[in-house]
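Notes to self, Zf-Tim10_DDP domain-containing protein:
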Amino acid sequence: MEATQKRMKTAVDAMIDEIDRKYLRDVQKKMFVCSSKCCDDKSLSREDVESCVDRCNTTMKGAQMTLEKELGELQVHLRSSILLDMRIVKV
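result:
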């Protein structure tokens, strides 16, 4: 069972790394560039700059929330499968 768990963890880690490289890094870069531009206008108040930065972070936060949700659902499905397999083995 340990070998199976290790293979599953390796596969999930590889999937997350691929999502990071293909999607999240671009989103994160845009977030940083946008946030940097918020600081360019010296006439803005501190609150306005914070609001601007928060708006820049919206897409990244959404992407992270989606990834966490999907990984949580994957974990639920895996647990269900494991429990079902354990019941089948006992029969």
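- The two ends are 18 Å apart (CA to CA).
- The mean pLDDT is 92.
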